[in-house]
Structure formats: C-alpha cells, structure tokens
C-alpha cells in the first residue's frame, strides 16, 4: 500500500512540475477561447494571386513554443486518436472532461495534436484555441493534480 501511495506521489510531483509552468496561460486561454488567435497578413499592394499567410497572436505563439519543448508532448499522439476512436472536437472535449489520472497520456496526446501537429498544419494552433482544447486540457490536468495531491482523508472533508 505504501509503495502505491509513494509511486502516486512521485508521479503527481512529476506531473505538477511538467504542467505548472503553463498554468499562467489559463486566464488568457479562457478569455480567448473561441477566437482564432490569428489573422491573415494582407499586403495592400498585393495582387489577387498573392500568397496570404497567417500572423499568430504572440501569446499563442509563446505558449506553443514553450509547450512544444515540454515533457507534455507525445510524438505518437496519432495513436491516442486511433486507439480511442476520437474523430471530432466534441469527442475530444468529452474525453478531456472525463479524464482522470489514468487518462493522463490521453490528455497529453490531445494537446500534442494541436501543438506538434501545428508545425506542419499551422491551422491546428489556431484551432486548439478556437475549439477550447488548450484551456480544457490544462484545466483538467490541474484538477487531476489538485484532487490527487491532497493528503489522505481530505477527500471526505471536501465532500461533506
């Protein structure tokens, strides 16, 4: 029993160290949920055949850059989607809201799709903000850590 408790505490401490640097983004992500986080640069002298490219919000880009170098990223995120048959944003949100400590890797996979996938499909960075994925994943990770990081016996106090 003590080994399980000790292992869980070590795991939670590692998870906390991985996620805590990103909690400062939660207010910004919540405030900008549903927004695109980017605009298209349009040169007034451009012709109709000129190439337009997205210009991303600086906070979003800082978040993506920091996140892409973190231990929260899973390069095999595609397997999370195929294994769990996740195909739509609604399914992603349902999985995120129902996630517990056992589904930590699933949360990492969903987050990785938008951060790492955005390197080749830039619209994913904006979509992660617009579909509220970044906020929901980080908030759920925070809830999981706060729930499991309590001393034994506090669960009863909070429910009572």
Give an overview of the whole structure:
The chain has a two-stranded antiparallel ribbon with strand order 1-2. It has helices at 2-19, 26-31, 58-68, 77-83, 89-98, 104-116, 123-130, 133-148, 154-159; strands at 38-41, 53-56. Helix content is 59%, strand content 5%. The chain is mainly alpha-helical and 160 residues long. It starts with a helix and ends with a helix. α1 runs antiparallel to α8 (133-148). The protein is built from 9 helices and 2 strands. Mean pLDDT is 88; it is low at 154-160.
What's the quick description here?
The protein is mainly α and 160 residues long. Helix content is 59%, strand content 5%.
Number of helices: 9
Total strand segments: 2
Shape label: elongated
Q: Given the helix and strand composition, which structural class is it?
A: mainly alpha
Distance between the termini: 25 Å
Spans of 5+ residues with little confidence (pLDDT < 50)?
A: 154-160
């Amino acid at each position: 029993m003590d080994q399980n408790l000790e292992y869980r505490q070590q795991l939670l401490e590692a998870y906390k160290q991985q996620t805590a640097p990103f909690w400062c983004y939660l207010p910004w992500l919540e405030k900008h949920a549903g927004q695109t986080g980017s605009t298209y640069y349009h040169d007034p002298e451009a012709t109709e055949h000129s190439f337009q490219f997205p210009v991303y919000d600086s906070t979003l880009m800082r978040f993506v850059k920091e996140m892409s170098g973190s231990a929260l990223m899973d390069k095999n995120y595609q397997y999370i989607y195929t294994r769990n048959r996740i195909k739509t944003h609604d399914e992603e949100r349902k999985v995120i809201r129902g996630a517990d400590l056992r589904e930590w890797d699933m949360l990492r996979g969903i987050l990785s799709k938008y951060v790492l996938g955005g390197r080749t499909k830039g619209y994913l960075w904006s979509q992660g903000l617009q579909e509220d994925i970044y906020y929901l994943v980080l908030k759920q990770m925070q809830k999981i850590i706060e729930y499991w990081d309590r001393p034994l016996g506090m669960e009863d106090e909070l429910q009572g």
